[in-house]
Write a structure and sequence with these properties.
Helices cover 36% and strands 25% of the residues. It is an alpha+beta fold. A hairpin with a 2-residue loop joins strand 3 (55-56) and strand 4. Helix 2 crosses helix 3 (123-140), helix 3 (123-140) packs antiparallel against helix 4 and helix 6 (219-240) runs antiparallel to helix 7 (244-260). Residues 1-6 have low confidence and may be disordered. The structure holds (3R)-3-hydroxy-3-methyl-5-(phosphonooxy)pentanoic acid (PMV). (3R)-3-hydroxy-3-methyl-5-(phosphonooxy)pentanoic acid is lined by residues 20, 24-25, 27-28, 95, 97, 145-146, 148-149, 204, 208, 286-287.
Length: 342
């Protein structure tokens, strides 16, 4: 790894990956979605520049290559050159919110470098980080996307995004004609999820643009978005009732509706089919076009083994991980640092 900060970062923040349990894509059009943080994390380190130019993992930090981090630092009010590092357990461009987690952790590190927030982060600090991270992500994605990912990576736990405010309301976000109400949602902590990564890379902005075109032009796509919304409303009740069987069945249906919108792939369909042999339900997660699928299962070892047998890279994760947090500066050893995200 070229040119790592010689003394390591002085400030380290981390944020979790997320999975969308229900409602991806439809949420962009005002339908509800349910997401949950999972225990895979992105770490971001900040130190003042040591060489008179901004770097990340030893490479020049540029708008062109690191738009999420550059926007995050700018919006966090960071001025002058910086030496950034990043390390991640989260595969990038795979629907697990790696860009959102990177953005959230970068905002937190940037704000902490200015002493605007302190360790340990409280609700007020998260309230400062969340909107800035969404703005940074939105700009980096060319002005598209909902606040689902950045909110989940910031708050942790479970999150319901809806067009109306209800129990557990945290705040509202408006972009143009769209207002999203963000809520905390308790997810049963004993639910196991297996993530199956196809290794195919889908770009969120491309997938969102593709679905957007379809929805503008075709009535069936608008109906499908509405069907997903109705399904998410049922799923919310099933999650609150801790009815894993029902949640699994609704995941199966959500996958089929996403396939109608054209965001599944042959490999995602295959993994979903294989997982369903042992799982309560399975679906693609995130923007699709590759990336990951998730399976809710009572037998994670078997579901993961079945998926691995057909070529998936698997992770067994716990739902409802902690949101953004400050870490001791020793949390990111030079050996952890990688540039896969960048
Ligand atoms: O693929 P991801 O993790 O970036 O998830 C995107 C979720 C979408 O609903 C497709 C877009 C959005 O901004 O909500």
């Amino acid at each position: 790894m070229a040119g790592l900060a010689r003394w390591g970062p002085l400030i380290v923040a981390s944020a979790p990956a997320k999975v969308i349990l229900f409602g991806e894509h439809a949420v962009v059009f005002g339908e509800p979605a349910i997401a949950a943080a999972v225990d895979l994390r992105v770490h971001v380190g900040w130190a003042p520049s040591q060489g008179g130019a901004s770097t990340v993992n030893g490479y020049p930090l540029t708008d062109q290559h690191h738009a999420f981090m550059v926007n995050a630092l700018r919006l966090a009010g960071v001025e002058g050159d910086v030496t950034m590092t990043s390390a991640s357990d989260v595969p990038s461009a795979s629907g697990l919110g790696s860009s959102a987690a990177l953005t959230v952790a970068s905002v937190a590190a940037g704000l902490a470098s200015r002493s605007v927030i302190q360790h340990p982060l409280d609700a007020a600090a998260r309230e400062t980080i969340g909107p800035l991270a969404y703005e940074a992500e939105w700009l980096a994605q060319g002005g598209s996307g909902s606040p689902t990912d950045t909110t989940t990576c910031t708050l942790g736990g479970g999150v319901l995004v809806d067009s109306v405010a209800g129990a557990g309301h945290v705040r509202a976000v408006t972009r143009g004609e769209r207002t999203w109400h963000l809520h905390g949602l308790d997810i049963p902590s004993d639910w196991s999820l297996v993530i199956g990564n196809t290794g195919e890379r889908g770009r969120t902005a491309d997938q969102v643009a593709r679905v957007g075109r379809l929805v503008r032009r075709r009535a069936f796509a608008r109906e499908t978005v509405g069907d997903i919304g109705a399904l998410v409303r049922q799923a919310r009740k099933a999650v609150q009732a801790a009815d894993a069987g029902k949640v699994g069945a609704l995941m199966d249906r959500n996958h089929n509706l996403l396939a109608i919108l054209g965001v599944s792939t042959k490999r995602l369909d295959r993994y979903v089919e294989v997982a369903r042999r042992s799982a309560l339900g399975a679906k693609l997660t995130g923007s699709g076009g590759g990336g990951c699928m998730i399976a809710l299962t009572r037998d994670p070892a078997r579901t993961a083994a079945d998926l691995a047998r057909v070529g998936a890279v698997t992770h067994v994760v716990r739902l409802g991980a902690e949101g953004v947090r400050m870490e001791p500066d020793s949390a990111m050893a030079a050996s952890d640092v990688d540039d896969r995200l960048l």
